[in-house]
Amino acid sequence: MKIAVIGTGYVGLVSGVCFAEIGNEVICVDKAEDKIVCLQNGKVPIYEPGLKEMIHKNVTGGRLAFTTDLPTAVAATELIILAVGTPSLPDGQADLSYLIAAAEEIGRAMNGYKIIAIKSTVPVGTNEKIRSLIQMHTIYPFDIASIPEFLREGSAISDTLNPDRIIIGVDHEEPIAELLELHRPLTDQILVTDIRSAEMIKYASNAFLATKISFINEIANICEKVGADVSQVATGMGYDKRIGPSFLRAGIGYGGSCFPKDTEALIQIAGNVDYEFKLLKSVVEVNRDQRFNIIRKLELELSDLKGKTIAIWGLAFKPETDDVRDSPAIEIIQTLLSRGAQVKAYDPVAQDNFRRQLTHSSLTYCSTAEDAAAHADALCLLTEWKEFREMSLTRLETLLRNPLLIDGRNQFSEEQLASTSFIYYSVGRPN
Ligand code: UGA
């Protein structure tokens, strides 16, 4: 199939590359010329394991190309996938301006029947609005489909090539056969729904996963007070097939470009139809508060943070990505700085992106994990990179000025700590 993918962010780029990988002819389009030039030269603007190699393979195989020329790409293809960003506006609503601009341009460029699939996460009813908008700019027939994306950063390629399910939201029979044919090599678990339900499935799925995380974080907070171990609690709960074991890792709360944005947007979507989504509001509030447990634990041991040196391991919102959008590390470091602490931070991949978000005279970016830990009064682990887990704790103990370890991601075990004199705090586990 000949496919144009509009938008080369995470979703657009990975989907485009994966559709090429399974044998389609794909052209990825973006307005940002620097991004397209970078991709044309074999460079990848995001860090995602395996992506660079897969792009190279498909470009050389003649199945994948990059352009800023949307009209030519639209005219040359039969399926157009819209995957432009829908960032949050200050009030939490999704900003649809990129989507609207792209839809108008697609309408003007059409030269025959097209299927226009929307992968961007959009409020219920948006796909229908996009249809009306395109209709205003073209005389040609077309169908709209809502095909939400469920890939995770860091495992984007395997999530796309082996998805748990594909959701296809349509309001006509016509595009179904082609869309089924396109997705069948990926999975048999395909649900064809109406468009509004497809839009809702995306928000409901992210909101549910966010709810699981806030739930286990509150259980962890209670575990700390009653002397239970949240890891064992989560394992025990997860054996129940109705609950399932995933997304029950307690920590410092969720971040990233999806859960914070989509939970706020769903609260807004409900509010717009006079429904107060009380549960989701609490999920968001619990998540925001969870990160401050790091500060509370530091203050419990060090009392005043003024003049203290705090080492931070991990700045990305999760491992295997350089993405720092809505990373809990941002607010944690800002709070430490506002309390007068000196902060030494290290992340193996996300450091440059983080530096663009936050610079301060009391914040130093270090080139190794050991450099960050050296002479610090405490070390806080915020992202569960493998490199941190594999660090020798006996060596680490000699580096720190004070052996205080605040583990925000439950990376170290009792056995590892047994031969050290660390004062150790984790999340929801006995110290
Ligand atoms: C999330 C969803 O998992 C994807 O299905 C969805 O497609 C994507 O959003 C999106 O809407 O585009 P992503 O944000 O890349 O994917 O990353 P996740 O692996 O879901 O992690 C999100 C956050 O939750 C991270 O900060 C992570 O540390 C945190 N988390 C996750 C926990 O604190 N505990 C867990 O048990 C799982």
Automatic annotation (TrEMBL):
Instruction: Name a Pfam family for this protein.
Output: UDPG_MGDP_dh
Record has Amino-acid biosynthesis as a keyword: no
Where is substrate bound in this sequence? 150-153, 202, 247-251, 255, 318
State which pathway it belongs to. Answer: Nucleotide-sugar biosynthesis; UDP-alpha-D-glucuronate biosynthesis; UDP-alpha-D-glucuronate from UDP-alpha-D-glucose: step 1/1
- What enzyme class is recorded for this protein? oxidoreductase
Q: What is its EC number?
A: 1.1.1.22
Q: GO annotations under biological process?
A: polysaccharide biosynthetic process; UDP-glucuronate biosynthetic process
Q: Known catalysed reaction(s)?
A: UDP-alpha-D-glucose + 2 NAD(+) + H2O = UDP-alpha-D-glucuronate + 2 NADH + 3 H(+)
Q: Where is the active site?
A: 258
List the Gene Ontology MF annotations in alphabetical order.
NAD binding; UDP-glucose 6-dehydrogenase activity
Which annotated residues bind NAD(+)?
Answer: 30, 35, 86, 121, 153, 261, 325
Alphabetical keyword list = NAD, Oxidoreductase
Which InterPro entries does the protein's record reference? 6-PGluconate_DH-like_C_sf (IPR008927), NAD(P)-bd_dom_sf (IPR036291), UDP-Glc/GDP-Man (IPR017476), UDP-Glc/GDP-Man_DH_C (IPR014027), UDP-Glc/GDP-Man_DH_C_sf (IPR036220), UDP-Glc/GDP-Man_DH_dimer (IPR014026), UDP-Glc/GDP-Man_DH_N (IPR001732), UDPglc_DH_bac (IPR028357)
| Ranges where the UDP-glucose/GDP-mannose dehydrogenase C-terminal domain occurs | 311-414
* Family per similarity comment: Belongs to the UDP-glucose/GDP-mannose dehydrogenase family.
The protein's name is UDP-glucose 6-dehydrogenase
Give the organism the record lists: Paenibacillus herberti
